[in-house]
């Protein structure tokens, strides 16, 4: 029930070797939908600023079919899973008509714990990844033409993004100690 897809779709990135890869294909092949699903799972918003979150539900999904984005990912050697649903109309369980299905978010942690609730999960993801949706797009969504945004970002912001992405905290601390000496 996500984007143009009515049924469950799975993309296994583990089959790709290395950490950097290019997603390419013809217009309409599903590249943007893939980015939308990743961005929605992590941040609760589609990848593009021109696609509101309430438009990610498939127009082809039956009214009683749920819309869900689920992302399994590894970060710093630990496995995480996140599930999100957008707000959408669904049939009432009793009686006639429809009701609004509230948006949900759950982050499953490596230790077996969970974090639930949209705001709480958003903050947990931001803390875990060390970046927000806008910064994530600048780094991970290069194929969407966003690379120019990273290149044109002010030096201080670009430096902070790259420090978080490449975990250079140790090098920064050593550099600061050397400066003090």
* Main beta-sheet strand count, sense and barrel state: 4 strands, antiparallel
How many β-strand runs? Answer: 6
- Roughly how many Å is the radius of gyration? 19 Å
Question: Which runs of at least 5 residues are low in confidence (pLDDT < 50)?
Answer: none
Residue fraction in strands: 15-25%
Number of helices: 6
Helix and strand run:
HEEEEEEHHHHH
Name the overall outline: elongated
Could you give the distance between the termini?
Answer: 59 Å
> Order of strands across the widest beta sheet?
1-2-5-6
Mean pLDDT: 83
**Helix percentage range:** 25-40%
Class from secondary-structure proportions: alpha+beta
List the helices and strands and how they pair.
Blueprint: H1 31-43, E1 69-75, E2 78-85, E3 88-91, E4 98-101, E5 104-108, E6 114-116, H2 118-129, H3 133-140, H4 147-152, H5 155-165, H6 169-180
Antiparallel strand pairs: 1-2, 2-5, 3-4, 5-6
